[in-house]
């Protein structure tokens, strides 16, 4: 079985931007614009994986992979579908995709107050490596920087069953 099928996640593209943006409006105070999504996807600067149910987008993860380094750019789950393991599936699928393409490490930043996200990242083995003071423009909240050194795929405990 394909790794994305195992995680029940699928690549999203330009045709999916409206759904991604609708989910962004539900999840984030500071959102990407349509133009940012279009440029990133069209230029191959990042990829987006999503999970759907009955056609509705329930969650997505946007990530980049450059020179063996993965960066998680955004991860979002529909507010009515949180605490169901969707973010775990999405993050796991993104990590799997990047490992299979030769990534050795991953990075992300997260709001200091976003405890559920921090708990998710720690579950995958991300460790805090720094702080960006006053990073977020809407409220000047700090961003915590996290890093993950990838383990071989065969030794990961979070593999889908």
UniProtKB/TrEMBL annotation:
Keyword hit for Ubl conjugation: no
Gene3D superfamilies per UniProt: 3.40.630.30
InterPro entries per the UniProt record, alphabetical: AcTrfase_RimI/Ard1 (IPR006464), Acyl_CoA_acyltransferase (IPR016181), GNAT_dom (IPR000182), YpeA/RimI_acetyltransf (IPR050680)
Keywords for this protein: Acyltransferase, Cytoplasm, Transferase
Keyword check for Chloroplast: no
Pfam families the record matches: Acetyltransf_1
Gene Ontology molecular function terms on file: N-acetyltransferase activity
Domain of life: Bacteria
Spans traversing the lipid bilayer: none
Domain N-acetyltransferase: 7-151
PANTHER family: ACETYLTRANSFERASE, ACETYLTRANSFERASE YPEA
Family: Belongs to the acetyltransferase family. RimI subfamily.
Stated name of the protein: Ribosomal-protein-alanine N-acetyltransferase
Native species: Humidesulfovibrio mexicanus
Taxonomic lineage from the root: Bacteria, Pseudomonadati, Thermodesulfobacteriota, Desulfovibrionia, Desulfovibrionales
């Amino acid at each position: 079985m394909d790794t994305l099928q195992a995680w029940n996640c699928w690549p999203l593209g330009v045709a999916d931007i409206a759904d991604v943006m609708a989910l962004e409006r539900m999840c984030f105070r500071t959102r990407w614009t349509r133009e940012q999504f279009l440029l990133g996807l069209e230029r191959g600067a990042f990829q987006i994986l999503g999970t759907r149910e009955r056609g509705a987008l329930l969650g997505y993860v946007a990530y980049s992979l450059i020179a063996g380094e993965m960066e998680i750019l955004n991860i979002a789950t529909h507010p009515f579908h949180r605490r169901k393991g969707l973010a775990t599936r999405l993050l796991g699928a993104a990590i799997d995709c990047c490992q299979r393409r030769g990534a050795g490490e991953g990075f992300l930043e997260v709001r200091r107050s976003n405890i559920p996200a921090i708990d998710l990242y720690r579950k995958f083995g991300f460790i805090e490596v720094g702080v960006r003071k006053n990073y977020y423009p809407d409220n000047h909240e700090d961003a915590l920087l996290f890093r993950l050194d990838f383990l071989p795929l065969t030794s990961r405990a979070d593999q889908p069953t």
